[in-house]
Design a protein that fits this description.
Elements lengths: L30 H8 L25 H6 L9 E6 L5 H14 L4 E5 L4 H11 L6 E4 L4 H11 L3 E5 L23 H18 L2 E7 L7 H4 L7 E7 L5 E9 L7 E7 L2 E4 L3 H6 L9 E8 L2 E12 L8 E4 L3 H15 L7 E6 L11 H13 L7 E3 L2 E2 L5 E2 L4 H10 L4 E5 L11 E5 L2 H7 L29
Parallel strand pairs: 1-5, 1-6, 2-3, 2-4, 4-5, 12-13, 14-17, 17-18
Antiparallel strand pairs: 6-7, 7-8, 8-9, 10-11, 11-13, 15-16
Helix pairs in contact: 9-10
This protein binds thymidine-5'-diphosphate and magnesium ion.
The site of magnesium ion has 4 residues, from helix 3.
Length: 474
């Protein structure tokens, strides 16, 4: 129309200026068509088969055990969160990763927000010679990290830790996150900016997150959905043994387990966990037994210990290390009710040696045998392993990973395995399967129960060539 107004349909007289016959047909871009024109190519659906996969290929870091857990290495542009308790060795592990990548001739950047450059240098010297490609930036401001990455273009960025960095005054004008470093808002905001940076630059990024034993430190847990990979570094800082496992991994399977030993010169891979976990085991002692525990896709043979004593206080005490307290309570109730083991009024302590945590139900049977053995003061055979879930009726139920458990036990020289009755044969494995339907059967079979209940003298076989300990009493 002459006046510049427009209508969606034909009209003779312009409703705006009142002139007749000034309408001219035009094709204008509707708001939707324009929006499409302005879209970036990335937001248009494409055939999944045409997606470039080269970008998502993992680059080995050079630290074998770390790469194995990641199904090959770190993918450019990916963000990995490494969680673990303070003091477990996260900084050490990542320093070794950085050194390995830098030794391969790449530039890598460590943002050290908790320790000074001097402290990191001292630690790094314990690990060996330092390659020149390893850069360090001791800052806590995420803005400074972004600038440093743009300036130095590293192939790998490590931020140690996400709880110690903050969106600081430098960028406060644009985006300000509330709270002190480590607060949930700060942790999320910092991670958001670092994830954006990683994606934009194709930069492999690892964020360190401190997690307490019960996972109560809210910060890192809240990041799990923002990152591509979540690694958990576990162990007990009073022991040398450490396990690295992928809890979430967008570029490969989880379940691979990396085993390390903390030594004088950093973390070393462990090829024979049995040496560390069973090395100090006392055989022929009541309360001790061995459990083939599933950890990811690996089986670890761990030593279970139980101690039963008269209570020091009116209220009997129950204490676990590396085990699930709720499952122990249930196992004790089943022992008391269905086996007649007098544990309810007594103090009961149960632990897994070596700083390993076992929360799977498959540990129940071994825990029950250990407690019964401790309560009765009779040792279990040294060549014995056991596993199986215990039901409330005292029955022993099937659990996952049967072949792997018995294979690993046989490999380490154990000759008998107490297993749920429904366990199929394992003809290729040189181990005797002792099938039990109930906990009571298992307890009676190894004479760690009430002498009044089918008690008889044992053949005294304790296996592993050691002389039978004098623990059989009537
Ligand atoms: P650290 O990596 O600082 O733990 P995190 O970053 O998870 O808090 O390391 C923790 C412990 O490891 C520390 O107590 C010292 C010990 N350590 C060794 O035993 N050997 C070594 O070579 C290094 C570097 C550290
Ligand atoms: Mg640290």
């Amino acid at each position: 129309m002459d006046c510049g107004a427009f209508t969606a349909q034909w009209v003779g007289r312009c409703p705006t200026c009142g002139e007749w016959n000034t309408l001219v047909e035009e094709t204008t871009l509707g708001p939707l068509t324009r929006a499409v024109d302005e879209l970036a190519l990335g937001s248009i659906p494409m055939s999944l088969s045409s997606v470039d996969v080269a970008q998502a290929e993992a680059v080995p870091t050079g630290l074998d055990e770390f790469d194995r857990v990641l199904a090959g290495g770190l993918v450019p542009g990916s963000v990995t969160l490494l969680g673990g308790e303070p003091g477990i060795g996260k900084s050490t592990l990542l320093l070794q990763v950085l050194v390995a990548r830098a030794n391969a001739g790449q530039r890598v950047l460590l943002v050290s927000a908790e320790e000074s450059a001097h402290q990191v240098r001292l630690r790094a010297e314990r690990l060996g010679p330092l390659p020149p490609g390893l850069l360090i930036l001791p800052v806590t401001d995420v803005g400074a990290v972004l600038n440093a990455v743009l300036a130095s273009e590293p192939a790998l960025l490590v931020v140690d830790s996400i709880q110690a960095v903050a969106v600081g005054p430098a960028v406060a004008g644009e985006r300000r996150a509330g709270g002190v470093p480590g607060s949930i808002t700060q942790v999320r905001e910092c991670a958001d900016q670092l994830v954006g940076l990683a994606k934009a630059r194709g930069l492999a990024t690892v964020l360190v997150g401190h997690v307490t034993k019960d996972g109560s430190l809210a910060g890192p847990r809240a990041l799990e959905h923002m990152v591509d990979t979540v690694l958990s570094f576990e162990g007990d800082r009073h022991h040398a043994f450490r396990m690295l496992l992928a809890v979430k991994h967008r570029f490969g399977p989880t379940g691979e387990l990396g085993l390390f030993e903390m030594g004088e010169h950093g973390l070393n891979r462990v090829d024979d966990p049995g040496r560390l976990l069973l090395g100090d085991r006392l055989t022929g002692v009541p309360g001790g037994t061995v459990l083939p525990a599933l950890q990811g896709r690996r089986t670890l043979l761990v030593e279970l210990q139980a101690l039963v004593t008269t209570p020091g206080q009116a209220q009997p005490k129950r204490s676990v290390v590396g085990l699930d307290a709720g499952r122990l309570a249930m196992t004790l109730a089943v022992l008391a009710r269905h086996v007649g083991t007098p544990v309810l009024g007594l103090d009961v302590f149960a632990s897994v040696a070596g700083g390993v945590r076992v929360s799977e139900p498959g540990a129940d049977l071994a825990v029950a045998l250990a407690v019964a053995s401790a309560a009765r003061g009779v040792a279990l055979p040294a060549d014995l392993v056991s596993f199986g879930e215990i039901g409330l009726a005292g029955e022993v139920r099937q659990v996952d990973g049967l072949p792997r458990r018995v294979e690993e036990a046989a490999r380490l020289g154990f000759t008998r395995a107490v297993v749920p009755a429904s366990t199929p044969d394992c003809p290729d494995v040189a181990i005797e399967l002792v099938r039990v339907d109930t906990v009571a059967q298992a307890v009676a079979r190894f004479r760690v129960g009430d002498p009044g209940r089918g008690w008889e003298r044992t053949d005294g076989n304790t296996g592993q060539g050691s002389p039978p300990p004098d623990t059989i009493r009537r």
